[in-house]
Design a protein that fits this description.
It is a single chain. The protein is built from 2 helices and 24 strands. It is about 10% helix and about 40% strand. The chain is globular. It is mostly beta strands. The strands form 7 sheets. It has a 4-stranded antiparallel sheet, with no helix packed on it. A 4-stranded antiparallel sheet has the order 5-6-7-8, with no helix packed on it. The structure holds calcium ion (4 copies). The site of one calcium ion has 7 residues, from loops. One calcium ion binds next to loops.
């Protein structure tokens, strides 16, 4: 009897603790037109991460200043309607202690230098266009292993994925084409073949491909891509992680908007070999456009469904 009572108390405590995991929903703003991508960065170094978001149709980049205790201020960082944005990042690629606001969209691949550390201003006079191709996805990582971060850009409307070699001090090489592919969408970087240089995965909504580009010699010269077969009708998002903890980075993709909508797992078997896709979560994933990144950046348009997809994926 005592044991049953003890278990009941433990259960009640557990339920109570679970109920305390999330407080009431806080709506930061509904005054956006097509917010697509957002990011997190503690830009004033006070230990409280800020949230920033771009909205595509009204051409705005907005910052929610974290004031603690789940209170957020609002700052409109940029308004460039009708030049829409597809992607936004806050980075310090040149390591000078002040941030750059990176945007992808109709202006191309652009960085806006901060006026000074602590001054949240990125005026047009501090704007540098790296490349004018309409950029729908940006990522920053080490492609050529020279300790200077590089920039990878994919362009959905431009049907191309390219990268720019970081040369230091926010200067970059001319664009280097990775591939011309219809509706190039998300790319991610990981060492898929365990040779200590970074490789690349790129998904295409146009030809429903998942391509893995292996870094031939660590300089960003790619071997012929491995094309993973997928039955998805348009692949929109991808993430990587070692989901089965076997030492090899695996890939999960999301497809949606078209007819089938699914989340697919590709298990990395090592030696540049991936198992066939494990399609999961069909009906509940209807409309899944993004899977959640494990790097703290959450990119999604249908948060509820992709959260659900990710949870199911990790539990499988
Ligand atoms: Ca902060
Ligand atoms: Ca900087
Ligand atoms: Ca590699
Ligand atoms: Ca693995």
């Amino acid at each position: 009897m005592h044991k049953a009572l003890f278990l009941a108390v433990v259960l009640l405590i557990a339920l109570h603790a679970h109920a305390q995991l999330f407080g009431p929903r806080v709506i930061l703003s509904t005054n956006f037109s097509w917010p697509r991508n957002l990011g997190v960065r503690d830009i004033d170094d006070d230990g409280l991460p800020e949230v920033f978001v771009e909205s595509q149709l009204d051409g705005r980049i907005s910052l929610f200043k974290n004031q603690g205790d789940f209170n957020f201020g609002f700052t409109l960082l940029m308004s460039l309607f009708p030049s829409g944005f597809y992607d936004v990042h806050i980075e310090d690629l040149d390591g000078d202690g002040s941030w750059e606001l990176w945007s992808g969209g109709f202006l191309g691949t652009v960085y806006h230098s901060q006026v000074a550390p602590g001054v949240w201003s990125w005026p047009a006079s501090n704007r540098t266009v790296v490349d004018s191709t309409l950029a729908s996805w940006l990522l920053f990582d080490f492609i050529d292993s020279d300790s200077v971060r590089d920039v990878v850009m994919s362009s959905w409307p431009g049907n191309i994925a390219i990268w720019f070699r970081g040369l230091g001090s926010n200067s970059f090489s001319a664009p280097i084409t990775i591939i011309n592919v219809p509706n190039a969408n998300q790319a991610r970087v990981a060492d898929f073949d365990d040779d200590f240089d970074n490789d690349l995965v790129l998904v295409s909504a146009g030809d429903s491909s998942v391509r893995v580009f292996f870094n031939a010699d660590g300089t960003g010269t790619w071997d012929a891509p491995l094309v993973l077969s997928t039955s998805s009708n348009g692949v929109f998002g991808c993430v990587t992680a070692d989901f089965d903890v076997d030492g090899h980075e695996d890939i999960v993709t999301a497809s949606g908007q078209k007819s089938d909508s699914k989340v697919e797992f590709f298990r990395n078997l090592g030696g540049r070999v991936f198992a066939s896709s494990l399609g999961i979560c069909f009906a509940p994933c209807n409309g899944a456009l993004r899977v959640l990144a494990h790097d703290g950046m959450e990119r999604f348009r249908d948060a509820k469904l992709t959260h659900q997809a990710y949870a199911r994926a990790t539990l499988s």
